[in-house]
Structures are given as C-alpha cells and as structure tokens.
Amino acid sequence: MKKGLVLEGGAMRGLFTAGILDVLMEHDVNFDGLVGTSAGAAFGCNYKSRQPGRALRYNKRFARDARYSGWWSWLTTGNVFNAEFCYHTVPRSYDYFDVEAFDANPMEFHVVCTDVTNGQAVYHRCDKANDECYEWIRASSSLPIVSRVVHVGGRQLLDGGMADNVALRYFQELGYARNVVILTRPATYVKQPLGYNGLVRLAMWRYPHVAHAMLTRHKVYRSQIAYVAAEEQAGRALVLRPDEELNIPHVCHDAEAMQRVYDVGRDMGLRRLNEIQAYLER
Questions:
Q1: Residue 282 scores a pLDDT above 90
Q2: Best exposed site among 2, 63, 130, 164 by fewest CB in 10 Å?
Q3: E strand intervals along the chain
Q4: Residues 44-61, buried b or exposed e (16+ Cβ, 10 A)?
C-alpha cells in the first residue's frame, strides 16, 4: 500500500509544516511519495533531500535581506520573492540544497501549479533536482499579481493554490491509499471570498482564467477541505492542522515570528508522532 504525504500551501504558514516535517525526518518516518502546493512544495522538497532545519534556517537568515523578498524585490524584478536569488542562488551558494540526496531518494516528489491559460491545476513529478525542478517549485509558489508568470515545461504557470491547495484526491488517484495530510489552517477556518473583485480583474486582465480562479477560490477551497474532513472521518487520511490561526503574514521579515510558527509545527509533530507511525504501519 502506497503511503503519501500531502502538503497544503500557505506562504509563511508553511513553516508550521516545516516543523512537523523536521520531526518526521528526525524519527526516520518515510513515505512513498509527497505532493506539495506552493509553500508545501517549496519547503517539502527538503523532505526528499533529507535536510531537517533547512527551511527555517534560510528563511530566518534572509528575513530582512532585500535580495530575498519584499516590495523592493517586487518593484525591481516583478516577483515579491526574488526568482533568481531564492530559487537558484540560495540553494547553490548560501544554504546548499543536497541535490545528490534528492536524486537518490526513491520517494516521489510532485508539485501543483495553476495553468494561467485555463485556470486548471497542473501536476508535475520532479525526479531530479535541477534548474527545471526549481522552476516548477517556483511556479507552484508564485502568487498572482505579485509574481511574474513562470514559463516551464511548455506551460505558463502560477501558484498551485488557486486550483488545488490540498492535492489529496490527486494522490489517491495515483494509488496512494494511506495519506498524511498537513494543513496550515485550523479546523475552524472558513475561507471567505475576496473583497476586491474589480482590482483582481484589472490586475489579471491578460489572464481572465486566473482572475476567475482567484475569485472562486473560496468555493474550491471549502470543497477541498470538506473532502479532506470526510476522508479523515472515514479513516482514509490522517490530518494534522494547527489548533489556532498561526498569524504570520505571507511575506514576513520577522525571524522570531518564523521561529514561533515553526515551533508550533514541531510541537504538533512530537505530540502526534506515535499516532502517525501507527497509522503508517497499519
């Protein structure tokens, strides 16, 4: 029976996920495959390369570095997270991404993006850690309006969270029958519609399908969460989620806030470690 790890997006809320993942790595918990959306992909890749601590480390190190993220990056490059620096310079020169370990690990690694030409989810399996893989991860994490469209694999892509923020159904269709799902919102969260429809349509006038995906995302997300809850109730998924809102902005320059969210994830991972191990060994 194939065992999967499904990671929700959520920008810096993904450090909650990173905390859980580090606990699982430290206790040698293994999966046959991982699928991540947005931050779930950007931080989840460290699970395949077996590098606990890395996601928190580089985010804290560059929290206030204008080369890494912020409005200066957006104004000068078109990306609020600097594409070249974040996805190519950092993993090669500042906080080495273990390419050899990633490539040698048999665990499948899938990322979710949104095709801007039709607003539909695109799923891609990355087997090798190379420039193309990094671009797929970047595309999955590229928030609309504050990011340029990413051209990779013959497609035009943006943030996967618009189309499929929790890709549990996708993994089940691939034969993953036992899945651990990590969400970054508490059970009480109900996603609300955007309150600036006109601005969205204006900003994304070249990509009307993206505008539609953004404006209907609350409905799609609610449906996905309802599906996850039903699978959890039926015993077909083990779900981990924060007990309360993590309260961290999408773009964060506060290293202490990052540490706090990460620690909440670590605590969750440690509290439920035995349950996770038992579920996977059933």
A1: no
A2: 130
A3: 2-7, 33-37, 108-115, 121-125, 150-152, 155-159, 176-182, 237-240
A4: bbbbbbbbbebbbebbbe
Residue reference for tokens 């928190």: 56
Contacts of 101 (CB under 8 A, 6+ apart): 48, 49, 50, 51
CA 181 – CA 7 distance, rounded (Å):
6
C-alpha closest to that of 126 among 144, 147, 142, 112: 112
Q: How far apart (Å, rounded) are the C-alpha atoms in residues 171 and 174?
A: 5
With contact defined as beta carbons under 8 Å apart, do 179 and 3 qualify? yes
**pTM score above 0.70:** yes
pLDDT of residue 174: 98
pLDDT tens digit string along 188-211? 999 999 888 888 999 899 999 999
Whole-angstrom distance, CA of residue 39 vs CA of residue 86: 13
